[in-house]
Amino acid sequence: MTDLEYIVDVRHVKKSFKDVRAVKGVNLTIKPGEFLALLGPNGAGKTTLVEMIEGIQHPDEGEIFIAGKQWKNHEHELHQMIGLSLQETRFMDKLTAYETMRLFASFYKLDTVRVDEVFKLIGLEEKKKAYVNNLSGGQRQRLALGVALLNKPKILLLDEPTTGLDPNARREIWNILLALKKEQNTSLILTSHYMEEAEFLCDRIVIMDQGSILAEGTLQEILTLGGGHRSLDELFISLTGRHLYE
Amino acid sequence: MNKITNHQLYRLITAHFAEIIREPAVIFWGVVFPILMAWGLGIAFTQKGEVHLKLAIVKVIANQNTMGETKLAGFMAANGVKKDSSYTIDLKNEKLGNVSLAFFETSWPNAYTMLKKGKVSMIIEDGPAGVKYHFDPANAEAKSAYQLVSNLYEYGPTFYAANQSGIEPLTMKGTRYVDFLIPGLLAMGIMMACSWGISYTIIDRRSKKLLRRMVATPMKKSNFLLALITARFSMNVAEAVLLFLFAWIYFGTKVQGSWPALIVLFLAGNIAFSGISILISSHTSNPEVGNGIINALVTPMMVVSGVFFSYHNFPDWTIPLIRYLPLTMIADSFRSIFNEGAGFMDVWREALVLASVGTISFILGLKIFKWY
Fold first, then answer.
1. Using a CB-CB distance cutoff of 8 angstroms, which residues of chain B are in contact with residue A103?
2. Is B134 on the interface with A (CB under 8 A)?
3. How many domains does chain B have?
4. CB contacts < 8 Å between A and B, how many?
5. Residue contact B218–A108, C-beta within 8 A
């Protein structure tokens, strides 16, 4: 798998829901160890694209390869190599953080050693015995991230992992992801509303709008598009006439 | 690594179980409430306390006559105890139980209001041509009040105390109301626990995107449902045992038939309602819709399946339909085991039908099950 040029290869993917064309022929590749940010306003098609990569939605047209494999015949293998954190997932309220982690660890046939490692990684060791409904928003997000990291995923998909968090809690999540980046074993696809999150964490930024990719490249590359812009929002306004974070 | 405590089925069962027992409301509604209901209803319908009947008297004489000038008023003055504008007549009978009759003298509009509110069960019109009884013949209490009061008026208060030798009150176990009630409550417990405990849990977790998160792992989907059913079943066993223990200690309830048959039927009932619960919760992710679906399933059965009172009072054409409702099948079979001494051979058909309904519903539900 390490020989693969791309860990994720999305080819001409289209997806519609009734009358809405959510994704209109997107091509996207991600290299092993690369951190990619997917930015765009609500309804841009980010979540649908990510859900297709996760195998939750199936493309109407086009193909998606994860580590050279497609969901259709390799569901079990692909589940083993993917970690994800969805928007607004709520774990069982009356389980402790530790019990929640052990539950998900059991799906990957992992024991308590890995569970303890992950708690250390996400810095939530003191909250192991706390019920999930007693955790703060930031702690819940760290727990969700920890669950996503249990299986040492090759690809980590995080859907707005810091939305609604205060700056400190957001910074804590970023630090965990930066530590992960240093190991260079995991590729990240991150959807976000926060420009600075994309700038801080990601190697490459993809801006989507109305189901299509508008711009793609490193931060410097896309800011120079169309004559140079001071921010991604300014670039988005010049491309669409609207704000990026509407 | 191979420890059972690391196995996903074990962890799923313990997680579901923890969610149930760590919620005090679940313990109250699942364990305490059925016992309270058995206690309350059992006491209300078992203890032979004094029966109180309330009736309204309306005078329809045109002039300013008082109550003392009619035949009925004369009867009341002779046999009743007057207090304000009401009379009380107490009838005694050791075997039938004592009855206290209260007659309220009032106007037509007030009498109708009292009848509508259930404060009185009959209106007695006291007119020049004699008395007339106004009541709903379909109302059993009103009908018995009519029979009692009309006999009382005709033969005097002694009629009630006479002829006691021909009455043999039934007090043996299996014939009391509480013996009818307990098997019904046990059956209802299975239905309620499965439909809310399984269906609502699935819908709630789907709405919170937890199901979607779980199926994005290598978790076996059947393990999730199996664990949910197993945890619920364990809880159902505990709830049923506690209810039975209470009934056994407090009311002396006994299983006169076969214990193995009872256990098989309990299992079959759980299979039936677990399967149905999976089926009805297979699609929706909206808890309010789920609430409606579950109520649409359980409420009609609670009303018609004879949990609290016999369904034989319903129209004849409905009886064959009612008898084949899952709740009716469980309640009827439980009763025949508890009270009639039924064995496995008497209930195996019901057990088979219930288990089949559950299995088919489960398979159908799984086929159309939406995880997200």
1. 8, 11-12, 15
2. no
3. 2
4. 77
5. yes
Cβ-based contacts of B12 with chain A (< 8 Å): 103, 106
Q: Confidence band (pLDDT; 50, 70, 90) for B247?
A: very high
The two three-digit tokens of residue B47, written as one number = 């203890």
* DSSP state, residue B198: I
Dist CA B122 CA B137 (whole Å): 10
Q: Which helix (H) or strand (E) holds A147?
A: helix A137-149
Closest CA to B250 of B48, B49, B43, B50: B43
**Which residues in A lie closer than 8 A to residue B217 (C-beta atoms)?**
79, 104, 107-108, 151
Reported residue count of chain A is 246
Does B216 contact A56 at a Cβ distance shorter than 8 Å?
yes
Whether the per-residue pLDDT at B209 is higher than 70: the answer is yes
Residues B116, B222, single domain; the answer is: no
What confidence tens digit (pLDDT) does each residue in A211-239 have? 999 889 988 888 887 677 777 778 878 87
Query: Picking from A15-24, B71-80, B106-115, which range would have the lowest pLDDT averaged per residue?
Result: B71-80
- The dihedrals phi and psi of A109, each to the nearest 5 degrees, come to 60, 40
Residue bearing tokens 């013949």: B137
- Search chain B and give the residue with CA nearest A107: B219
In this predicted complex, what is the ipTM? Answer: 0.88
Q: Quick one: B277 and B336 in the same domain?
A: yes
Residues B136 and B188 in one domain: no
Nearest chain A CA: its distance from B343 CA (Å): 42
Say if residue B211 is in the same domain as residue B266: yes
SS3 A212: strand
Q: Are A235 and A228 in contact (CB under 8 A)?
A: no
Give B218 to chain A, closest Cα distance, Å. 6
Q: Are B122 and B142 in contact (CB under 8 A)?
A: yes
Contacts of B218 in chain A (CB under 8 A): 76, 79-80, 107-108
The whole domain housing B124 covers: 51-161
- Strands in A8-17's sheet, in edge-to-edge order, are A20-30, A8-17, A61-66
Query: What tens digit of pLDDT does each residue of B248-262 get?
Result: 999 889 999 999 999
Burial of B155 (0-12, 13-18, 19+ CB in 10 A): exposed
Q: What's the pLDDT at B160?
A: 84
Contact between A90 and B12 using a beta-carbon 8 Å cutoff = no
> Do residues B6 and A103 lie in contact, with contact meaning Cβ atoms separated by under 8 Å?
no
Same domain? B213 vs B340 = yes
- Asked if B352 and B331 count as a contact pair (C-beta separation under 8 A), the reply is no
